[in-house]
Amino acid sequence: MAELRLNHVYKMYENTAKKKRKAASLKQGNYAVKDLSLVIPDGEFIGILGPSGCGKSTTLRMIAGLEEITKGEIQIGDQDISRLHPKDRGIGLAFEDYALYPPLSVYDNIAFCLKAHKLPKEEVRKRVLEIAGIMKVETLLEEKVSALSGGQKQRVNIARALVRNPDILLLDEPLSHLDGKMRQILRGEIKRLHKMIGCTTILVTHDQMEAMSLADRIAIMKLGVLQQYGTPEEIYNDPVNLFVADFIGEPPMNLLTVRVGRKGETPVFVLKNQETIKVPRKFYPVIKDGEEYIIGIRPTNIEIVNGETYDALLEVDVFENLGEEKIISIRIEDTFLTIVAEDTEVLEKGDKIRIKMKEDRFYLFDKTTGMRIREPERR
Hints:
By secondary structure, this protein is an alpha+beta fold. The chain is built from nine helices and 21 strands.
C-alpha cells in the first residue's frame, strides 16, 4: 500500500436536472467540496473533522467511490483510482448507521462480501473467525444482528469492513449513535485495532474528542474547504484562523474583540468594557494604534496571580467549583472570559483578580478575515 493523495478534488451536487446549468454553477462555486488536496501516508490514522455540512462525509464517499468527483483526482501511489469501481479500490467502509442485514446472523453479515466474491467456504470461515476475534464478537456469530446492542452492531459493522483485508479503512461517524460510555470504550478499541492491523484509516467525525484522541493527523473542514491539516498538537496549539481556534478545545478558546490603545507609552488591548490587557511584546511589530483585532487564549493558559506583575485586573462574575478544577467567568459586555484553574481560593461575584496570560499561547487574529496574525520570528 502506498500513500493516498487527493489532488485538487472538487464535488458539486446539481440542484437541477438541466445539464446546461452545470457550467454556470461551477463558476459560482456551489461546491460541497472545493479544491481539496491531502497527502495521507501509508499506515496513518487521519481524522476529517468539521461541523455538519462541511463536506467531510462527501470526501469519504469520493475516496470509497460511492460519489463521483467533479474535478481533480484521487491516487493510491501512482495509480489514479478516481474512476475505479468501489470494489476494485481495496477499501473497507464502516457506515454511521451500521447498514447491516437484520435477517442474517452476525456470521453471515461479516461473511457477506466474501461469499459474493465466491471465496472457498473454508477461507471465508477462517477470515470471519479471525476478524470476529479481533473485534470481540466471536461469541455473537450465531446471533441475529437485530438482537444486538448499538455497540455490538458497530463492532460487527467494522468487522465486515475489515474482513476484506482492505488497504484503507474508512470510518464514517462510527460512534455517533452510541452513549458516552460506549463511545469511550469503542474509541479505545478502534485505536487498538489500528495499531494491530496497521492499515491506513480515515475517520470522519464532528466530535473533536474522537479526532484528537484517535488521529495521527487531522484535516479540519468548513463549507467544503480545508482549513488546516496537521497533528492534534499543531491544530490545538497553532490554529491558522478563528474557525480552527474556536472549533478545537473544550472549554473553547477565549476570543475577544479588542482595540489597541496606550497607557503612557505602553500599548494595551482595550476590551469592550474598557478594561485593558497588556500587549505581549511579540505583537509590538504587527499591531497598529486604534486598530481592532480579535485576541485568543485558552482558559487553561490564564493564571491567577498575586504579585505585582500581571496582565489585567478583572472582576469575577461566576465561580464554579468542580473539585479538581475551578471555572471562573469574567463578563465583558456581551461575552465572557473563562479561566480554568486548579489551585485557587473560593471566589465570589465582584471579587477582583489579577491574571497573567501565557505569552506563547496568546493568539492574535485579523478581525475582518479571521486569519491568524503571526508575530515575527525571533532571530
